[in-house]
Each structure stands twice: as C-alpha cells, then as structure tokens.
Specification:
The complex is a heterodimer of chains A (242) and B (302). By secondary structure, chain A is mostly helical. Chain A contains twelve helices and no strands. Chain A has one domain. Chain A is globular and about 60 Å long. Chain A starts with a helix and ends in a 5-residue tail after the last helix. The mean pLDDT of chain A is 89. Chain B has two domains: 217 residues, P-loop containing nucleotide triphosphate hydrolases (Rossmann fold, 3-Layer(aba) Sandwich); 70 residues, Alpha-Beta Plaits, CATH 3.30.70.100. The longest helix of chain B has 14 residues. Chain B starts with a strand and ends with a helix. The chains are: A mainly alpha (242), B alpha/beta (302). Chains A and B meet through helix 1 and helix 5 of A and helix 2 and helix 3 of B.
Chain lengths: 242, 302
C-alpha cells in the first residue's frame, strides 16, 4: 500500500496537479475570506472563520474531483492498470494507496488555512476571544467531508477510462451528496420526512460537527460513506474478472 | 512443472477466446507461443498472470493455482504485457524503484542498479520514460519484469514495433535472462522463435494445433526433402517424375523445378544429376530447400 501511496504522491507532485490544486484552493479562499466585500471576515465583525467553512466544501467539489480524476482513468487508458494488477499486491491496497494519497494532498491544502485561525485569533478583541471549539470541530468536519469526497472521486475514476467523464461524474456525485438532500427535503411532498431525507446529505452532518460537537453518529455517517464508495470502487476494480 | 494448464477455457460473450487448452512447460524451457491475431495467446497469458480468471479449467504456476494463490503466483511471475504499458512521466530509476518496492525487495537500490546494468540502460537511466525510444522502453519493461528475479517470465510480444537492431538486442537479452528461467513468449515473427526458443506452441482459434521442439515440428510437417533444380532449358515436369525416387515434381518457372522425395538429399541430388546427363541437360543450379516454421504456421492456421 505504501509503495502505491508514495508513487501517487510523486506523480501528483511531478505533474504539478497537487501544487496547482493547493494554490487554487488557497487563492480562492484568500480572496473570498479576506478581500471580497460580500464575504470577508474583516467587515463581518465577528471573530470566526465561518465563511471559510462554508466556501471550502464548494471549492473542494471541483478540486478533489480534479485530484482523483486520473487515479484509475489514466492507468486504464495507458494500460498500466494491467501491470499494476498483476503485481503481488491486493486490490484493496492499490485502492487504499490511491485513496490516502489523494487525501494527503487535500490535507496539505487545508494545512495553511490554520493561518486564518491564527489571524482571527490575534484580531479578536480581546485577543484570543474566539470559539476555538467550534473551529476545531469545523476542521474535523472539513477533513471528514474531504475524505468522503476523495472516496467519491476515486469511484468516479474507476468507472471510466476517460478523465473528463470521471471529473464530471465526480463533481456531480459530490454535489449530490453535499447538498441535494437539503433541497429535496424542502420540497412540499417530502415535508413529513424532511429530517430523514436531510440526514442522508453530507451537509447535515458537516453542519453538526461544525458546531463543535463531534457526535459519533456523524462520524459513523462519514465513515460509512467512505467505506461505501471504496467498496464500490473495489467492485468495479474487479469487474475485469466478471 | 513450471507451468501447467488443464482444460483452460475463456469465453467472452459466447465466443471462446481459448477453448479447452492443455499444456505443460518444464522449468528452464523457453517456449514460443505462436498464432495469428486473436488466436488466444494474450488471453492465455493474462490468465497465467492472474489478470483475468478462466471461465473453466485451471492453471498452475510452480504448483500454485492462479485463482486460489493469486498473490503467490504473481510473486513468482515476471510479466511484460502487450504494448508494454509504462508510466511515461516517471523517471527510469524512479519506476524501477517503485517496481522493487511493490515486490517488497529488501535491497531495492542494489537490485535497480543491477537491472539497469543487465538491460543496458546505463546511459538512459536518468531520463523520463516518456523521453526514451521504443527499444529502451522495452528494456525498462523487461527490467521491471525481472527485478524480483522471478522463476517464470511471461512476455507478450516483447519485440513488436522495434527496429531490426533493437529486435536482435532484445532477443539476446531475453535469451540471456532465460538461461535459468522458464520463459513463455508470444510473437508473430517466425525467425524469432527459431532463434530463441527450444519449443513452439502454435495456437489457432483458441486451440493448440501444434506443440513440440522447433526442429521436430518443422520435420513432422514436411517429411519429404524438397530440392529446387534449374536446367538450361525447359522440359516437361512429367519427365522428372519418371525418376522413381521422386514422388512429386512441379514447375516453378520456365527452367526451374521443385521436386520432392522421401529419400535423402545425397541420393536425390545424384539421381537428378544422372537424369540431366542422360537427357543431355545442363544443370545450372540444384539446392535443398529447408522447410521453415513459416510453412508449418501457414498450414496449421489457415
């Protein structure tokens, strides 16, 4: 698994994908959070970085799809899939190697945003008057959400040998799981079951954790989502054997 | 037995890619796998390397079943797939290090260095694979296949698309490596099999139609000796047939004839010489035509 992981990280770095993703993520966040009028923290007057946690899931839909789109598609297209799957490694360790490589790149892009926390921490009056618990909760939520996105992206990559198709499918699925259940639950006919429908969406659990309460139910939800998509990936990965 | 295959069948959507094939390969043999396109060579190799499972039947590599002991089998096999897929954006050394780590070798950099020397990649070792010529890419493909010192090597068309010099180089490389390994290689080039392999298997439409030593195979398919004779003038081929040792005679062009006989070369030649003297003909050329593997192949896969 670690040989796959290190190979993937190297290929992310050498193809500049990782660096571009990190730069785009930070530039977009930086602009929205500190510069643009509508959303910036400085004008909002509250010592929190909520705009970041509202924006990041949306940006990640694009960026994580971009990170994962090639992981299996390219191997299938160039035929290296065959070399890889005739090496003495189990299918699961190939998948997990690629999964954790993608997740690591995402974590690397989240890491510099701790500067936002530090900035707001310093700017608040009195200094340090900031809801640290909620911010840590939000970070845990964001990491879980991106872990979910990566598993969705990996699945989208394994179903096709075309990177563009994989990118679009991944964006659609991420968006679907992130917020479509919210929209669905607001439809009149689902009025009675709206809570239940909302429960299926990532956003519901993300908001819960963001409040600073890491509830096991939410954690279990994210873990199930990840396991589900990794399991689906494994099934498709094996489909050559059908 | 290095490789054993029993009643192996692979069906793609009601079409049999390979159909009930059986063979055994002893360790140390270099076996050439011949067949027209779509005959089932690649499918057989993919099953042996655990890439796809057989529909029915079974295969063993060094006594290990390819379906049940898949991981163990993969450890013992070095595989160069058709078209030699590689990661174009990786460096040669980086890729070989990756291969070494996948096989969990303990002395990775040592092994990579050895492979680079063995396959003659010294000059190109710091380049990206995408920058290499096809011949060198093939060497990289071979290097990753043998890096873990496998007992069995499976090479799917290792010389396709190379220029004649590269073909000779890769061939020598394979013969060198194959000295202490079992090698199964597929190819379209007959000379290659004659040059490298001590055994040939010909597969056609999913069935093995010939299997044997290269020499034996050539002989068994044309037991007659064939002699090509040229006289200074044309004559009726029936005249040649009047010689009782000759079983068959045909005209190739105006003055050249092909005669076949069960007798040995010396006897045929002297008989024809006497025939020419008796008929006051001048023999301008007379030579024995060696039957080639190509003829055998053409006959069997028509």
């Amino acid at each position: 698994m670690f040989s796959i992981l290190s190979k993937e990280i190297r290929s992310f770095l050498s193809s500049l994908i990782a660096i571009i993703v990190i730069i785009v993520f930070l530039v977009a966040n930086g602009l929205f959070i500190w510069i643009f009028n509508e959303t910036n923290i400085l004008d909002a007057g509250y010592a929190n970085i909520d705009p970041f946690f509202e924006l990041a899931p949306i940006i990640f839909i694009f960026l994580i799809s971009a990170i994962t789109m090639r992981s299996f598609s390219e191997e299938k297209k160039t035929g290296t899939f065959e070399t890889l799957s005739t090496k003495p490694i189990t299918d699961l360790s190939i998948i997990l190697g690629k999964y954790f490589a993608g997740l690591l790149i995402v974590l690397f892009s989240i890491l510099p945003t701790f500067v936002y926390y530090y900035t707001v921490h310093k700017l608040s009056v009195p200094v340090g008057n900031i809801d640290t618990g909620a911010i840590w909760g939000s970070y845990i939520g964001l990491i879980m959400l991106s872990a979910g996105y990566v598993s969705i992206g990996l699945f989208s990559s394994v179903i096709t040998d075309n990177q563009i198709v994989s990118f679009i499918v991944s964006m659609f699925l991420c968006f679907f799981f992130y917020s479509s259940f919210d929209y669905l639950s607001s439809i009149e006919i689902f009025k009675k079951t709206d809570f239940f429908i909302e429960w299926f969406g990532i956003n519901f659990h993300y908001r819960n954790i963001s409040r600073g309460v890491v509830d096991t139910r939410d954690v279990v939800y994210f873990l199930s989502l990840i396991v589900l998509f990794i399991w689906l990936t494994k099934i498709i990965f094996n489909s050559r054997k059908w | 037995m290095s490789i054993r295959v029993e009643n192996l069948t692979k069906t793609y959507k009601s079409q049999n890619a390979i159909d009930q094939i059986n063979f055994e390969i002893k360790s140390g043999e270099i076996v050439g796998f011949l067949g027209p396109n779509g005959a089932g060579k690649t499918t057989t190799m993919k099953i042996l390397t655990c890439y796809i499972p057989p529909t029915s039947g079974a295969a063993w590599v060094n006594g290990l079943n390819v379906e049940n002991d898949s991981i163990e089998v993969r450890k013992q096999i070095g595989y160069l797939p058709e078209h030699n897929p590689l990661y174009m954006d990786m460096y040669v050394k980086e890729y070989l290090m990756f291969a070494a780590s996948v096989y969990q070798l303990s002395n990775k950099s040592q092994r990579v260095k050895e492979m680079i020397e063995l396959t003659g990649l010294q000059v190109e070792q710091n380049k990206k694979i995408g920058q290499l010529s096809k011949g060198y890419r093939q060497r990289v493909g071979l290097a990753q296949a043998i890096i873990h010192n496998p007992k069995v090597l499976i090479l799917d068309e290792p010389t396709s698309g190379l220029d004649p010099n590269q073909i000779v180089e890769i061939r020598n490389l394979i013969v060198n490596i194959g000295k202490e390994k079992t090698v199964l290689l597929s190819t379209h080039i007959m000379q290659e099999v004659e040059a490298m392999c001590n055994r040939v298997m010909i597969i056609n439409k999913g069935k093995i139609v010939a299997d044997g030593k290269t020499e034996e195979l050539k002989h068994s398919f044309s037991p007659d000796n064939t002699v090509q004779v040229t006289f200074n003038q044309s004559l009726n081929s029936d005249q040649l047939k009047s010689l009782n040792i000759i079983s068959e005679a045909s005209q190739l062009n105006e003055q050249t004839y092909i005669v076949k006989s069960k007798k040995n070369e010396e006897l045929i030649k002297s008989e024809i010489f006497n025939f020419a003297v008796q008929n006051q003909l001048i023999l301008t050329e007379m030579k024995l035509i060696e039957s080639s593997l190509e003829d055998v192949f053409k006959n069997l896969t028509k």
